[in-house]
Amino acid sequence: MAKRVGVILSGCGALDGSEVREAVLTLLSVERAGAEIVCAAPDAEQSHVVDHLAGTPVPGHPRRVLAEAARIARGKIRPLSALDIDDVDALIFPGGQGVATVLSTYALRGELCEVHPDVVRLLKGALSSHCPIGLICLAPILAARVLGPVAGVRLTLGARGTAPAKHAAVMGADVRPCPVQELVIDQKARVVSTPAYMYDDATLPQVAAAIDKLARTVLSMARDRRAGAVSTPARVAQSAAAPKPILRAASPAGAVEVRPKRRVITPDRGSA
User: Which residue in the list 12, 113, 131, 137 is annotated as catalytic?
Assistant: First the structure.
């Protein structure tokens, strides 16, 4: 039976919803890997709408998040409230500003943000059921807020010292710098993250390669879950289908400027 991957969207557009490139690349990688895609998004009003040509807000023209996300999913999408963690074998969250305005209040409240109740429900359910979670671009801020205090989850938000990385650390996450083409993998919590367009100079091929690594790694963890086994760092590192990860240490550590200036860095194994 094909594995089922829940892809959580937040609209359609990098500046007010899901980052379209990241979302489409996620769908492509999941389908190429032979898994079934289950798209979901909040059925709520999207009050923050941005003209993507001018880069400016469009007041007085609210949209529906679910209807906007359906553009990416070609109409095959369900309300987030109707998605249960038992319906899927893995979760992947593409990035985009919708992470900060739809799936959370991070754009307004920074490290004190609230996360959408259905996202909280799914993330906590995934952690307790050992369901792997993939997080792209800004999406790791959701796990930092929800899972950081309870699991000290290890993740990346790109370069060291950015505002989201600092905020995620305050939230309780173990934040690691990571180059655009690589992943940070928390083996214990089964959380996989990659920075993607947290780097302004990231190229589409770089982002595509990293998202493909992320999807394959998440799916390898999902197969282990179904079989009742536990992934080990050695197994992930030796897998021909998986990338070389930055692995989690045994003990955990210890998120407003959402689009900070970023730079590509050399990987560092220290905390952000």
Answer: 137
